[in-house]
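Anyone up for a design puzzle?
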């Protein structure tokens, strides 16, 4: 037996031993999508008489206080481990929001203060949150 045929024979034997192990590998991540509810956090507030704060797209209602900062995390999903042969697939993304506000005084003819109002100074996107859906894994290699 020459070296070339011995090398070919050893390669075939090695492949025959590894084939069942490679076929048995499961690449399914075994994850599922879990809902995380919307979270709105109102940080420090300042007194701003007679106001109702209404921020479009954010579920808050404050009376008499003006928040200086609001953070809003949208409803989204996270991937969590499971025993099932499923995976969490991304279907889209959302952005969180940081909103800064201030209490402004309104004047009549630039001289007489007539009241205060809570106004949005900035409304910026921050962070990326995923929308996920749970799907079944098919076959051993997925």
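Challenge accepted. My sequence:
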């Amino acid at each position: 037996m020459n070296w070339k045929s011995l090398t070919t024979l050893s390669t075939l034997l090695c492949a025959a031993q590894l084939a069942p192990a490679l076929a048995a590998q499961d690449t399914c991540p075994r994850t599922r999508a879990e809902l995380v509810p919307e979270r709105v956090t109102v940080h420090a507030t300042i007194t701003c008489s007679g106001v109702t704060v209404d921020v479009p797209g954010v579920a808050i209602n404050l009376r008499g206080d003006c928040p200086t900062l609001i953070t809003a995390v949208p409803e989204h999903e996270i991937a969590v481990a499971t025993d099932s042969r499923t995976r969490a697939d991304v279907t889209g993304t959302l952005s969180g929001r940081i909103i800064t506000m201030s209490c402004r005084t309104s004047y009549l003819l630039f001289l007489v203060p007539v009241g205060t109002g809570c106004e949005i100074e900035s409304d910026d996107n921050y962070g990326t949150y995923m929308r996920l859906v749970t799907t079944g894994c098919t076959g051993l290699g997925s």
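A detail worth pointing out: The longest strand covers residues 112-136.
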